[in-house]
Design brief:
By secondary structure, the protein is mainly β. The protein has one domain: Beta-grasp domain (Ubiquitin-like (UB roll), Roll). It contains 1 helix and 5 strands; from the N terminus they run ββαβββ. Strands 2-1-5-3-4 form a 5-stranded mixed β-sheet, with no helix packed on it. The N and C termini lie far apart (about 40 Å).
Length: about 80
């Protein structure tokens, strides 16, 4: 199956510069978002959305999904 992955903000550093934060991934069935986070070696806390809706990292991806990852920030 194939999904589109878009990394936003500082998370773009986990992809080659020429990718501009967006790529297509070919994955095996039953791949969840946490597995992708681990494979990219992302250590920051992230917020994720699939096809425009916020989901948890245990969400199992489906063919054609568009996954967005955002770095969680805190302020005060």
């Amino acid at each position: 199956m194939e999904i589109t992955l878009t990394l936003h903000g500082i998370l773009r550093d986990y992809m080659p510069h020429q990718a501009r934060g967006k790529t297509t991934l070919t994955l095996s069935n039953r791949t969840n978002i946490e597995q992708i986070i681990k494979s990219l070696n992302i250590k920051q806390s992230v917020s994720v959305a699939v096809d425009g809706r916020e989901v948890e990292i245990d969400y199992v991806l489906q063919d054609g999904d568009h996954l967005h990852m955002f770095c969680m920030i805190a302020g005060g």
